[in-house]
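Journal club side-thread
Mid-discussion, someone asked how the predicted structure for our own chain would compare to the paper's figures. Pasting it here so we can look after the session.
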Amino acid sequence: MSLSEISCKFTENTLDEIIQKAGGTKHTSYKFGECFKKGDSYLSRVYRLSVFGVNETNGSTVEVHLICKGMPDNVARRKVFHSAVFFRNEINFYTKVVPAWEAFQARRKPANPFTEYPKCFASYCDGENDFIALENVNFRGYNAPNRQDYISLEDAILTMRTLGRFHGISLAFRALEPEVFEAAAKGLEETYYSEAKRQWYIGFLGLACNVAKDAVEKTYSGTEYETIAKKFLQPTPLYDDLIKLVSSDSPLAAIGHGDCWTPNFLTRYSKDKHPEAIIIIDFQLARRASIGLDISFFIYSCTSEALREAHYEQLLKEYHQSACALIADLGADPTAVFSWEAFQEEMRQFARFGCGMGIESLPMSLIEDDEIADLDDMKEDAVLTDVWDIKPFKEQRKRERIAQIFKHAIDQGYITN
C-alpha cells in the first residue's frame, strides 16, 4: 500500500510535516495498519497509518499514529455522497474553528480547557484530492462501541457531559468575543438541510419516512402517537422544517457536531470497565446551529426507551452542569449565558430535530453488515437511494426502537398536532 492511495497530494513531504508537528525534524519510515471494514465510512476511504521519525537536534525518536481519510476512488460514490462538500467542511472545522477555539482558550486560560477531539496533523483541500490526517486516539485507549447497541446510563451521562463541554466553549466564546466567534463559524457550511441539497436528499427522506411510519403504525396503532407522527413524517414539509431548524438563529446557537451517534464518541474505560473519558470524532457535518439539534440527535439515536423514561431529566442536567462549568472556567457568567430555563425552552423549540435525523441514523445503525451495499461498485448514474435503499424492518425490536423516539418526543411536547 502506498501513500498515493490516500491522495496524490499525500507525499513524503507530508510525512515530514506530520513528524515536525509532533516535535521531530523528519520522518524515517511509515506503516499502514489494519484496513477498515465495509460500511465504516460512506463519505471517504479511511486508513490507519503510523509514521516514525527523529528529532535530529537531540536524537530522540517520534511516533505518530493516524487515521487518514481520502476521497473515494469511485467517481460515482464521490458524487452520490457529496464527498467534496463533507471533506471541505471537516477540513474547515480543523483549520478555522479549532485554531480559533485554541486561541480563545489561550487568552482565557481555563483550568480545564476543552481538548476532547483528535489533533489534526495535515490536510489538503481542492475538491479532487482532499485528505485529512488525524490523531488515531485508539492508541490512547479510546474505542467505539457497537453501533447497534443501546448506550448504557453510565456511558450516556459521560457523553452528555462531554457534549456539554463541546457546546460550552462556543457559548462562552460567543458571549465574550462574538465577532471572533462568528468569523470562525462562517468557515462551516450546511451539508444536509438546505434548498441546494433538497433534490439530493428528498428521495431518501421519503424512504426514511416510510420506514418510520410503518414502525409507528405497527407499534402504536390507533393512538395519538400514530396520528401525530404520521403528520410529522411527510417528506416535503419535514425537509422544510429541518431547513428551518438548522438555519434558525438562537442565543443558544453554537458550533454543533451534526452527527451525534454513538460511534463518533470514542470512549476510554477504566480497568474495572467504567467510562472515564470521551474523544469526539468526525466533524464532517459540523454546523453553527442550536445546541438542541445535537442533544436531541444523540438522545433519540443512542438511548433506549427505558433509559429515557427513567433518566431523561438527569441527562439534561448532567449536560447543563458540564456546559456551565466550562463557561464559568472560561470567564463568562453561566447564569446569563445559559440558564436552565433558557435550555428547557431551547429543547422545546428544537428537539424535534432528533426525530427528523433519527429516521436516518437509526436505520443506518440497525442495518446488518451483510446488507450494506458495495460502495465501490456504484454506477455513474447512481443516486442516494440506490445505496441507502432502506425498507421497513421485519423485526419488531427494530421497529419499536424507531417508533419509541416519537412517543418520547410527543410526550415531551416537542412534536405536536
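Post-session note: The chain is about 50% helix and 15% strand.
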